[in-house]
Every structure is written in structure tokens, then in C-alpha cells.
Amino acid sequence: MARAATTADAFNAVAEPRRRQILDVLVGGERPVNDLVAQLGLAQPLVSKHLRVLREVGLVDVRDEGRQRVYRLNAHPLKPIHDWLQNYERSWAQRFDRLDVVLQELEDQEKGDDGGDE
Amino acid sequence: MARAATTADAFNAVAEPRRRQILDVLVGGERPVNDLVAQLGLAQPLVSKHLRVLREVGLVDVRDEGRQRVYRLNAHPLKPIHDWLQNYERSWAQRFDRLDVVLQELEDQEKGDDGGDE
DNA sequence: CCATTATATGTCCATATCGGAATATATCAA
DNA sequence: TTGATATATTCCGATATGGACATATAATGG
Question: Distance (Å) from CA B89 to C1' D8?
């Protein structure tokens, strides 16, 4: 077996930076392919292929609008990623027990502070 | 160019399910490799290889403890993923404006319901 | 019908994957 | 030293990628 298909998962689909860029544009509202091509400065076939992957994972929907195809974001499949991350949120918010970090922490607290930990 | 290396990113590293499983175990505290092998039921070399990837991305730290190597979670590299997702959180929380979805929504509410969305 | 615009698909290549099997390395024990 | 235990690395094969380029499909306007 090789690496899981990019279409296997939102995890896999979103691992590709261009694909993330595409979604980032689509958060601003639906767009026809050429808009994406222009905004991202990528070759049109590339964009189409990335859109295919996103579509297969359900991250975008398409609508035919005359000779254009308008793509629209559907963020739902991202939720599992978010959910998975929840377990770890505390881990990067919380201080580590490595000595240097702990010292930093103490220093910060001594300094008066204006916010507890978030 | 082929697909980005798994070690390129936390995004890429975490796209692999087993790697996520490993991290999921490590949230519970540091573990030597064999513990992971046992808990995950994977071949030892496989686990070692996945751990290498996680190490290269900085998601785990290692400590030598006698003849064992104890791995410890470092969730920091996951933060970029979380940050990226923030833009989309509203998108799956909010209701969509597609007619069918809206109707569904109304229906569900009328029905009293015993399960929201998953 | 033909040309043009908008998008999708197919072919090719270099690259890197995950997993399995075998083996290397390292530490401890007798 | 020899052996056992714990972990890492190497070699292999099947697979699929992203990108470049060429081409197919589809809709629109003469």
C-alpha cells in the first residue's frame, strides 16, 4: 500500500497547500474557476484537478452557471479535523515542564501580568 | 514534483491515521515504543517509522531511558492547523442558505427531535 | 456551422509514500 | 562473550501524487 489517496479524507485533501489556498479564497464567497486561476496564479488544469479532489471529499460544491462552473465552500468535512485537534489544544496552551519554559513562566508571572492564562 | 513529503508539515504528517493514533496515545502521557506497538497492534518497525516522521515534524520528543526510548507529545506544531481552521469554524456552525437545508432545519425543529446533527 | 471562451480530462515523469521482511544497533544480564 | 530485549534502519514493491502539456468537452455568439 502507498500513501492514502488525497481523496480519502479531509485530512489528506487539505494537506496540500494549494488546496488550502483555494479554500481560503472560497471562504470569501463562491467563485468560478477562472477567478481562482487568476487569484492563485496557477495553471488552469492544476486548479481544476485540485478542485476535483476537494469536490470528492465534499469540501466544495459546484453549480453550473452558463459556461462557467461556480464553486462554493462546504466546510463541514473540516469539522473532524477540528474535533481531533480539541484534545491537543490544551497541550500547546499549557506550559511544558521543561526547565527553561518553566523559568520563563515564572518570570512572566513575576512581571505582574495582565492576563491569566487564556 | 510529487506529493509533498510527509515530513514537510504537520498537515502532511497528521494526514496519516496511524500517526494520529500514536499521538492520541501520547496525549495520555509519554510512552516507550513497545507500549505504542502493543496499544496500536502495529508492527514495531512501522511504529518506529511513523515516530520518525512525527519527530522530524517536531510533534514528538524522545528521551533515552536505559534500553528504551520514551516518546513524548509536543503538540505545538499542531497549532497552525488549528489556526487555519478558525476561518472555517463559522462555516460549519452556521446554517447554509440552500433551500433544502433550511427546510430540513425547520422540519427538525418542528419534530422536537432527539438528535441534532452528529 | 465555426470560433471562442470556460473548464475538465488524459498522458507523462520524477518522486515519495506505507508496509513487510530482514537486519542493524544498542543496552542489559548472566 | 553470548544471548535477550528494545528500537531503528534498509531494501523492496505497489501505488499515487503534483505539475507540465496537450487535448477533450461544453456553452455561447456570430
Answer: 40
Nearest CA in chain A to B73: A91
**d(C-alpha B24, C-alpha B36), whole Å:** 10
Residue numbers in B near A6 (CB within 8 A) = 3
Answer whether B12's CB lies under 8 Å from A15's CB: yes
Give the side-chain half-sphere CA count within 13 A for A71.
Answer: 27
Taking an 8 Å cut-off on Cβ atoms, the answer to whether A85 and B81 are in contact is yes
Work out the burial of residue B11: count CB atoms within 10 Å of its CB; fewer than 13 is exposed, 13-18 middle, 19 or more buried.
buried
pLDDT tens profile A48-82: 999 999 999 999 999 999 999 999 999 999 999 99
- For residues B58, B4, A53, A70, the Cα torsion angle rounded to the nearest 10 degrees is 90
In chain A, which ranges are E strands?
31-32, 60-65, 68-73
Q: Which of B91, B94, B96, B118 to mutate to test the interface with A (most CBs of A within 10 A)?
A: B91
- Comparing every residue's Cα with the C1' atom of nucleotide D25, the nearest one is A67
CB contact under 8 A, A27 and B85: no
Domain B10-77, what fold? Arc Repressor Mutant, subunit A (1.10.10)
Distance in Å from C2's C1' to A4's CA comes to 46
pLDDT of B43 above 90: yes
For chain A, the domains span 10-75, 78-110
Q: What is the pLDDT of residues A85-101, one digit of tens each?
A: 999 998 877 645 555 55
Under CATH, to which class is A10-75 assigned? Answer: mainly alpha
